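User: My instructor asked us to take a sequence, write out its structure as tokens, and then describe one feature of it. I'm not sure where to start. Here is the sequence I was given:
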Amino acid sequence: MTITPYGAWPTPITSELVLSAAVRLAGVQVDGDAVVWAEGRPGEGGRTQLVRRAADGTTTDLLPDGFDARTGVHEYGGGAWKVRDGVVWFSNWADQRLYRLVPGGEPEPLTPESVLTRGDRYADVDVSPDGSVLVAVREHHPVHGQGAADVRNEIVRLSADRPSEPEVLVTGPDFVASPRLSPDGRRLVWVSWDHPSMPWDDTVLSGRNLVTGDEAIVAGGPGESVSEPRWSADGALHFLSDRTGWWNVYRWLPGTDIVPEVRINAEIGEPGWALGGSRYVVLDGGEIVFARWQAGYDGLAVRRPDGTLTDVDVPFSAIAMVRASGPGEVVLVAGTPTEEPGVHRVSVADGRTETLRPPRDLGLDTGYLSVPEAVSFPSVDGQGAPRTAHALFYPPANPEHEGPQGELPPLLVVIHGGPTSSAVPVLSVNVQYWTSRGFGVVDVNYGGSTGFGRAYRDVLKGAWGIVDVADCLAAARWLAEQGRVDGTRLAIRGGSAGGYTTLAALAREDTPFAAGADHYGVADLEALAADTHKFESRYLDGLVGPYPEARDVYVERSPIHHVELFSRPLIVLQGSEDAVVPPNQSEAIVGALRARKVPVAYLVFEGEQHGFRRAENIRRALEAELSFYAQVFGFGLPEAEGIEPVLVENL
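Assistant: Let's start with the prediction itself. The structure tokens for your sequence are:
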């Protein structure tokens, strides 16, 4: 082992490796003997390609050049494509029209012409049993609309094989999701919710007999989040509900009472940021196979028809999607602490796994991979009462280098977005980029995060900017007190909602952080409340308070109003076309720091939206952040990587 300053350890995990052949596996579906998945490809401008794997193992890209299976519904998208009997229906990013693609053919539009920012967007398609009709979520943006209040979300029905004028089936609720047709095509169910609720707060599951027109509420209402309705072959409807405090599985037959199918103190569901999720399936044999989040890790389990629950012995620690794949089998998008997500087929009986789309071979000695520890530590709630918070801690890992004797590593406190998302224990080369250089990384599941039940999510209600900040400060201080990291070299970083927490944690006199990195984060809560898209336009009602009635709270918790407390260096990274957190948010905070001569670096990436998709921009953002820390903490950059230093003003 070579003695090298922490942060300066040479590593094969470079920004080039982070991006080399990297893809985002955005979903998977089973079509007979074939499996189709979606790959987001940074090397192709971030577009989403659909890949079909035939029964003989051969793979084929389905979409011609110029097509991108991605939808703008809710801005976060999801549910952009559907496949059956070789036919693919998909929403194309450039024009947001629905297209039909038959084997050997070219994509043909089914919906009227539109444009990206105005017109109609489509998602969450379901196909009728006979294949003649589609139902879908349509989000209408009027050409002369004035903002979020003019956007209309509906469920429509249209022809599956030729252009047609969509017929509105459901209108009125602020939001709709998951339109699903029964096996006989006679019934439609869907999920809806209204402002100011978010889909993880209060939703309603409704059903309609398409023959008689009779309509009724199946489940949901105030204090209950219902999601993922799914019909089984016997005509029963399954769905997820958190009525007991955890997203579990329930069953309903028209004309009967709701019956709990899976009741455990673990989270099966996930927050509905994106459409088209699938955390459980009902197999033809009656087994319910589900992913379940418990104690910071994901796992796979099965409920047998006799009611017994059994864990399936699989190595996966994070499961993004579960689909049925023949008798006793499921297909997963899943990963482990030492492998990125891949597509795998699993036998429910014994956990035997066949990898269909392997994670990329990084060619790394496993000594470079830091395996996370699930840790819990003391923190406080919004009133200062003691409570326990959770995180994943990644210690530095490098088989060839160690820090000088008596030194401790610097720490990066990572804040996930959402803020209802979660820190996921799956191999992220972005995390290993830091740990293999000698950084410790703690990925905080602060109060409000998913995976620990509704009560834990609700801790953040009315307390955004308080509980999340308290937990991040507590994680950093606790690790320093434990002697795991250097308490004088603590940094905090986050994107979107995590960027807000980063700024809020720095804009205080008692901050323990020596530096921060803000990726398209919120600086002014008032501006966000006034200038954001429909899906999140009332989100802050629950996190902060109703606006403008609670304007004083918005001002008090906005970092832009506390620039006099900023004294630590900050790097800000922003996309020029971000509709979720517009660039003026970043420009406001950077301008204020410049005026006060606080060290600051600012990079704007042209053409990027909320989250960077282009390989060259992802790489530059990563290297710029490393250069920033090197300048602030005083360690050198590896010459072999040729990293372009970032300009840190006022340093």
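For the description part of your assignment, you could build on this observation: The mean pLDDT is 95. Try explaining in your own words what that tells you about the chain.
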